[in-house]
Amino acid sequence: MAAASGAGRNALVPDSLLRTIAGELSVENALKQTAAIASRARYPNSQGFFDAAEYVARRAREYGLDHVRVERFRAPEPMWDAAEASLDVIAPVPEPISALERVPELLAHNSADGDVTAELVDVGRGVSEADYRDKDVRGKVLLATGEPQPVWRAMGPRGARALIAAPSGDFFGRHTPPDAVLWGDAPAHAVVLMVSPRQAGRLRALMRRAPVIVRLHSKAARSEPGALGMVMGEIAGTHLGEDLVIAAHLDHQKPGANDNASGSGTLLELVRTLNHLIVAGKIPKPQRTLRFWWTTEIVSEQAYFRRYPEDARNILLSVVLDQAGGLRNAENNLVIIFNPVWLPSYADDLIENLAESVKDRYAPAEYEPDPLVIARGGSHQSLRTVYWDYQEITDEVAFESRERRIPGIALAVPSLDLIHSNLDTVDRLDPTWMKRTALLTLAAALYVADAGPAQAQAVLDYTFRRAASRLAQSDDAAGDLAFERARLDSVRALDPKLDTTAYQNQLSAVADAVRNRRR
After folding, report:
1. Is the pLDDT of residue 515 over 90?
2. Cα separations (Å) of 133 from 61, 127, 129, 260, 511?
């Protein structure tokens, strides 16, 4: 994990821009749009996704986004949408366990249709040969705590008829609570229902008394052709071929509120905010085109660049928002993911400067946060920032790949113990963090969109100071020098006339001094 430092930090993004954006942002509307999106199941390659996409497209047009369209990319499998599912104990005593109407995650994604009544057998995790030793599962229903696909592979030719899976989530060491029903992915041709660990515990308690017979019902709607999708629109600028993409993935299970209806709903509010500020004359129309993309996480962008490979050259920067709202009544962190080692970029220093400056000015640890960064009904937490080295976990992957090399900024306020579960609901979002992520996302994008020679020079100066500070603390200054030199050169994307020669020479001198000091 990389650590930020205050070395040489003067705010790059002007306070006036932050206050102008914050004064117009409507967290209430961001939450309203988030709730509308979260009310839909939005699995990849589903009609539900495209229903949500059409909703987003309508709202984006209403808010003034131009050239709005829903792009489709052929998928090899038919679309799949959950239609019906239920789980009941039939014997020894009838007892309803779960139904799709109450728990949208009950029917595992891509589960086969089926009506199965059979004895339940507990196979523990169900992912190893040992889990099946001395157990007859043929014609029965498995109860397992492992994920559906590895359980079904381990079951192999033993002939189970269906699976009830009760895995626990584990994201970066954070575990989901016992009532969480996870989004599961069913193997081909298998009937799979998902329950919580607590529900699985109830079934095991019944099994200790007597054999348990369960009834599983599953039905999905399938349609041809299969398709992945994304919603696209733009606010056109005057600098051609230097576009910025602001992206949030639209897909996920229902409700999927923080991950990532919150990011998608926030993007809609950013479109409304931006166009209102432009129409009101409070900010100029951006010089560089701002594109807004609501995606099927990673895969739709990859499909887009396969269809339009030349367009990658027209994108200067991506700004990705994945999980905008954190968790109400919890200690939240703003997570910023840096660019990969093969893509040194000024963007890392720019977003670090913006986040730390906002924290210092408006939400430091030792004072009550400024109203500018608090929303009605939200927390009054300080702005806690965490910086991660590159992780292949969200849409930045498609932009920052070795093939496309589009630098990016990736922001998140994750709720790692609830995501991908039925507990990731809108009422658990923190409005204050929705406001902060909206502010930082739009401020960073607008700063780059309008950056001219003066702003490029300021970014170069700041990036140099940060690079010199990193080299001075490096255990391998010689090895890191090339990376930092490339980072300095990346600023020339904002102004090709920038001369970085003197800065490069000074960095070399810093690296030499570090080597000499440690001899």
Report:
1. no
2. 59, 12, 7, 41, 61
- Tokens standing for residue 258: 């923080």
User: Closest Cα to residue 443, out of 231, 246, 280?
Assistant: 246
Answer for the pair 151, 171: CB distance below 8 angstroms, yes or no.
no
| Structure tokens given for 52 | 């949500």
CA 371 to chain CA centroid, Å, is 27
Q: How far apart are CA 26 and CA 470, in angstroms?
A: 38
Element (H, E) at 73: strand 66-75
Q: How far apart are CA 404 and CA 401, in angstroms?
A: 5
Separation CA 214–CA 104 (nearest Å)? 20
> In terms of Cα–Cα distance, which of 33, 48, 41, 151 is closest to 106?
41
Whole-angstrom CA distances from 179 to 167, 200, 204, 404 are: 11, 10, 15, 41
* Number of residues assigned to the chain: 519
Indicate the pTM of the whole model. 0.95
pLDDT tens figures, 148-180:
999 999 999 999 999 999 999 888 888 999 999
Report DSSP letters for 299-362, one per residue: HHHHHHHHHSGGGGGGEEEEEEE---S--TTS---EEEEPPPTTS--HHHHHHHHHHHHHHHHH
Q: Which two tokens stand for residue 511?
A: 């690296």
